[in-house]
Amino acid sequence: MPVPAPWNVEGFLRGRDNASEVIEEGLAGVNDRHGTSYQLVAQVVDAANFGVPQHRRRAIGIAYRDGAEVHLPEATHADNPMRAWDVLWDLEENEKPPATGQWAALLPSIPEGGNYLYLTARGDGEELFGWRTRYWSFLLKLAKDRPSWTLPASPGPSTGPFHWDNRPLSVREQMRLQTFPDEWRIEHPFRAGRRMVGNATPEAAMSCQAACVSSLMLSILVRSVRSRILKI
After folding, report:
1. Burial 7-43 (b: 16+ CB within 10 A, else e)
2. What's the whole-model pTM score?
3. Residue 70 burial (10 A CB sphere; 0-12, 13-18, 19+)
């Protein structure tokens, strides 16, 4: 029986103050009480390596009761990632959210794939900001030829990624970047819908993990049946 660790932010299982030690201690307790052999196997993956047109680094992990060897999903798109353009080019939105906030007028001056650093002494635009004086996603814009950056759940008015048309992404555009089917609908106001999508897990990435778990479970089942047949 597998125990999957949730698809969570990178720091959940890696880095300072992560939860891996707590999880491993909990599994060790279960093993002592029930004679099981759970052992956590975890790694940090980028959703863009699994067919998601968005860089989204998350920690995944899994443990099996009998201590079976675990092979976490292998990247399927590491050398040929989906681009933002691949999923957005044919989507026409009647209502496009406008850019707001103090710095909205600067978006047209920043090239695709750029951020506020373009408007510093080391960039090619007008020097309006100091080098590395803002956060990375400040005035960050999508580029057609590469995956999106991570979609935030509750961005401020100057937090990207913004559409290359110099505006915030619509909820449907964000859903495309999360690989959600077009028939899915979120019947909520813009801010609530954006928060729901930003907090979600890309469907394509979870499908890869689910396929990995299913394959391993089938392998365990086959070994168990084979063992019983040999005993007969």
Report:
1. bebeebbeeeebbbeebeeebeebbeeeebebbbebe
2. 0.85
3. middle
CA atoms within 13 A on the CB side of 34: 11
| Residue pair 87/176 in contact by the 8 Å Cβ criterion | yes
pLDDT in tens, 25-56: 999 999 999 999 988 888 888 999 999 999 99
Residue 1, pLDDT above cutoff 70: no
Name the residue among 121, 170, 120, 116 with its Cα closest to residue 138. Answer: 116
Reference 169, options 146, 197, 145, 188; nearest CA is 197
Q: Could you tell me which residues come within 8 angstroms of residue 104 by beta carbon, excluding any fewer than 6 positions away?
A: 98, 157, 158
Q: Which residues contact 125 (CB under 8 A, 6 or more apart)?
A: 109, 110, 118, 119
State how far the Cα of 63 lies from the Cα of 70, in Å rounded to an integer: 8
